[in-house]
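Consortium newsletter contribution from the modelling node. Members have asked for a concrete example of what our holo predictions look like. Here is one, prepared for the NDP complex that several groups have been discussing at recent meetings.
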Amino acid sequence: MSEGMQVVDEKLDFDPDALREKYRAERDKRLRAEGNEQYQEVVGDFSNYIDDPYIDEVIEREPIVDEMDIIVVGGGFGGLITGARFRELGFDRVRIIEKGSNFGGTWYWNRYPGAACDTESYIYLPLCEELNFVPKEKYTHAPEILQHSQNIGEHYDLYRDACFQTEVTGMEWDSGDNRWTVRTNRDDEVRAKFVIMSNGPLNRPKLPGLPGINDYQGHTFHTSRWDYEYTGGGPEGGLENLADKRVGIIGTGATAVQCIPHLGRAAKELFVFQRTPSSVDVRANRPTDPNWAQGLEEGWQRNRMENFNTLTSGGIVEEDLVQDGWTEIIRNLISMANFRGKDTDWSKVPYLMEIADFKKMNQIRTRVDSIVKDPKTAEALKPWYRQFCKRPCFHDEYLPTFNRENVHLVDTEGKGVEAITEKGIVANGKEFAVDCIIFATGFEVGTEYTRRAGYDVTGKDGIKLSEKWADGIRTLHGFHTRGFPNLFVMSNSQAGFTTNFPHAMDEAARHMGYIIKKCADENITTIEPTQEAEDDWVDEIVSLSRLNENFQAECTPGYYNNEGQPNPKSVQNGAYGKGSNPYFKKMKEWRDEGNLPGLEIS
Ligand code: NDP
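And here is the predicted structure:
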């Protein structure tokens, strides 16, 4: 151990080796041989779990057969930001195709009580300056985000050509006239020179693969399809119909953390079935100060986004503008390591990161003890893993909910729920009879891209995307894939990942906009990555992911590490390993070269 590390150790009031051991033991309890196969896909008998409960009116229309410049699949933030940036570049014929009844994506579907953004709204809500808008709260609630999504649609006139309640069923490339034909469940056949796939990273709800789900005789739904008709109330709470109900909720991730306080207040009795506790840090939400909002100067949102992203990527900035739980761990690290720019000894950084993480998680565990009165419940609510093994949560009412007499934590010690019966839920060998089961069990990650998208793509010479990517995603820069000209993929895979996902989407939208504009200006008919450029990019992704290999392997299972089974395919499907800022910089340098290197042009 180097001298610097001993200096750090002298000041520690905990034993890092003991913590490492405890983390491993807790992880081992949760490892399952089935890995990602443990979940039930929402198809067939389970497809009712993804029906749209928010439709006011079913849209009746004739099939559309026409041609656009650009088709964007998905009307969430990705589709909206892309549509907006394309409009700014002068593209008129842009059609967004969306399964929901309106724009909003994640925020269209996730209307559960208490839903709110966990990333500061001033950096999370896209295009605030363009719309001259400042959100009402530091962490604004879902209805305002949904409204803002729709305002973006209005502002950029994206409603004009949009198709809602419409699902893409397939698309194919026609080499004869160099166009894509996109087909839908409404029998549409829309042609376009360019297609953007912005299906969303967490768009397919998943269920635990438990025996008996369909035997259950009570009421049930997934959090992303909240049934307000059954519960009463709305996104702000209420839920008055639950006053005489025994409710069971399975899962304690970021979604559950936000809705459990509302369920606890409303239900006659609430049973929370926990497999792994979330880390729940301080939220400290507050209304926006109108004076601050008025004083914001041009460029404020971009500056703030970049400031946050630099800090959360481990970079150094003079001032932390956002100052929240996400940036705190990095602030700790900086003060601990006494970074001095060039003088920093980078070899010590992984160790210092781990120590800063232990400190942060100790604080989080102490917070549980300070809030939850029953010592056994408090103990069960403590997370034993590194903070970024799972999605960190921030909430001030979640932990106090477990002090309510009507709320019962059913901790399964990492084993999870065992079965569903006609009457309720079996856990720890015991049946809990409930009137309603709510699945807060998250979304598919790590399954085939085309399965999550809900359609396959047929490229040149009949090649299918599902076949090409069967052993792992292959792209150039995360956007292009050989054999599929003029097709852009918008996702985290092989691209830059940041906690503030809309930031990455905006970078992607600008990048795609640059390429498509260049094609228009220079009469380029098709672009497609060369084999060499694609292979090199995949190799770079795989070799960089090794930087992260040990961290992922030591983590408790979850969707960040392929349920505890990181493998060559999951590694290949991961994000650019040096982080989002170096990725954005690389893309900018690529654009600055001006001649689309690595793309074959016709
Ligand atoms: P998650 O995948 O994070 O959580 C699913 C939960 O279900 C976990 O607690 C999991 O336990 C549990 N679970 C799965 N199977 C079983 C079982 N058999 N028995 C008991 N428990 C089980 O889904 P969420 O919907 O909570 O969140 C998904 C993502 O959405 C977040 O990670 C975040 O990125 C995003 N999100 C963002 C929000 C925001 O910004 N405001 C709010 C909410 C979500 P285990 O941990 O052991 O696997």
